[in-house]
Specification:
α2 runs parallel beside α4 and α6 packs across α7. 36% of the residues lie in helices and 26% in strands. It is of the alpha+beta class and 481 residues long. The longest helix is centred in the last third of the chain and has 28 residues. The chain is built from 13 helices and 19 strands.
């Protein structure tokens, strides 16, 4: 599922860079790979374990941001007499990583790729993640190849997964894909992305699922000052995401039928979290009648509108209860579904950037072949949810702290100014402290009343004064004007 993203473009200010460096130190981020890990990665890049099945005749293509080189997925879409066929190749990290080796141990220490406004800390050395293991165009690579047949309504009818050699023909980006689809100039394998994507979105609506089209928040510098803007996702982003969701759902069903697996689960959001979102909606002047469900509201929003974009950013808070659930021996866990997907689901499509996906792929391969999973998979399975939780927590902390740092940089020269906002949260034990949602810029920050001023007016619009904005301490503070 989407995460809140922030990117810095332009010449960054020194205090912002210094604050981001300090955050890396505070989080004990493992920036450099050790010599033993790098040496093992170099050897693996030269001598991977290659599968016997050759699928290089399938003209796969990738869709990613223009500058991305860690390409986890490549696809090919085609028609069938009674529906469609989705071929989805996933980078086969296990072809390069020796279980129990230095590279494997380092991946278990890092858990996920970490994204900062000024760069990323990769899960695997770039010689693999951006080289030999990446599904780069015109490069023959080992992959886990999914074949999922759909009926005319976009419902899965058959699933197969196997190891294969693949070769991507083209590296596409979202904007060029959208232009081709809008102009009607895309060849059929790409043109079907829209057809299948729309069908899968209809299936999502029918089962009560939700896809958050979360805009990417950009902090740009212009004339010595920062500006806050959003890059709203294109329809092609959503259609591409539907292929990944389809594969994650198919993988979950395979593992549940097999009796051993790891699921990505999320319980239904508590009433308090939804109540906070309703207050945020009021703050941003978004009409949310009580008879309209959360899912209906999300589908009605336009991420190109700044106040809708800000609300979609806050909707990611409902994903915070997500976790990983391991099961084995045919014992089905109590919770098998992901509330936002509204179905069983697992992470299996981003093994270059997320540790658990390598294990999910192995379990699905074993399930399809009717074989026992590799011993190294079973040995690590029980510890995987805890390890993923720790890595995900670190990624979440980095994300939240980066938001605070960048927003402080955005506002640092505006201390003393007045803004329009709404109090969207008040601490029960300390009603003079809470959270304010600004109308413009789209910032969410702490607010504190002066002593003797009384509690904050929950859910009400008011004028607030910026009293503190320091990128070094990542603190932004407002007070009622």
């Amino acid at each position: 599922m989407p995460r809140r993203q922030i990117r810095v473009t332009g010449a960054a200010e020194a205090p912002l860079r210094a604050a981001l460096r300090a955050l890396r130190t505070e989080l004990d981020v493992p920036e450099a790979f050790g010599p033993q890990v790098l040496a093992e990665a170099e050897r693996a890049a030269r001598e991977p374990t290659l599968p016997a099945y050759d699928a290089t005749d399938i003209p796969l293509f990738t869709i990613d941001p223009p500058t991305s080189t860690d390409l986890d997925q490549a696809m090919h879409l085609s028609r069938r007499p009674d529906g469609y066929r989705v071929r989805y190749a996933i980078a086969d990290v296990a072809a390069f990583v020796v279980p129990g080796g230095a590279l494997d141990a380092e991946a278990h220490r890092r858990v996920t790729t970490l994204y900062f406004p000024d760069g990323k800390i990769p899960l695997h050395p770039p010689v693999l993640s951006e080289g030999a293991a990446s599904l780069l165009p015109d490069q023959t690579s080992p992959a886990v190849l999914w074949t999922i047949d759909l009926d005319a309504d976009g419902r899965p009818t058959a699933t197969d997964v196997r190891r294969a050699l693949v070769r991507s023909r083209a590296k596409l980006d979202y904007e060029s894909v959208q232009k081709q689809l809008d102009a009607g100039t895309a060849e059929e394998p790409l043109a079907l992305l829209k057809d299948i994507g729309l069908l899968r979105e209809q299936q999502e609506v029918a089962r009560g699922g939700i896809s958050l089209n979360v805009p990417e928040q950009e902090i740009t510098e212009r004339d010595g000052a920062y500006e806050l803007t959003y890059r709203a996702p294109l329809p092609a982003d959503g259609w591409n995401a539907q292929i990944s969701l389809l594969t994650g759902m198919a993988a979950a069903e395979l593992m549940l039928a097999y009796g051993t697996g790891v699921l990505r689960t999320l319980p239904a959001a508590p009433d308090g979290a939804v109540g906070r979102l309703r207050r945020t909606a009021r703050a941003l002047r978004i009409d949310w009648p009580h008879h309209v469900s959360y899912a209906e509201l999300i589908r009605s929003l336009d991420p190109h509108l700044p106040h809708h974009a800000a609300f979609l950013q806050e909707c990611t808070t409902l994903l915070r209860g997500a976790g990983y659930t391991v099961f084995r021996g045919g014992v089905t866990p109590d919770l098998t579904t992901h509330a936002a997907v509204a179905a069983p689901y697992t992470h299996c499509t981003a093994p270059l950037r997320r540790l658990v996906d390598r294990y999910a792929s192995e379990l699905c391969l074993a399930a399809t072949a009717g074989e026992e999973p590799p011993e190294w998979v079973l040995a690590a399975l029980d510890d995987l949810p805890k390890r993923m939780a720790e890595g995900t927590r670190r990624a979440g902390t980095a994300e939240r702290e980066c938001v605070d740092i960048v927003e402080a940089a955005l506002l640092k020269d505006r201390v003393g100014e007045l803004f329009d906002g709404t109090v969207v949260d008040v601490q029960e034990r300390e009603p003079t402290v809470g959270t304010v949602q600004l109308e413009s810029p789209a910032v969410v920050a702490r607010i504190k009343s002066e002593e003797g001023a009384g509690g904050l007016p929950l859910g009400e619009r008011l004028r607030v004064r910026l009293t503190q904005a320091d990128p070094g301490s990542a603190k932004v503070l407002f007070a009622p004007a």
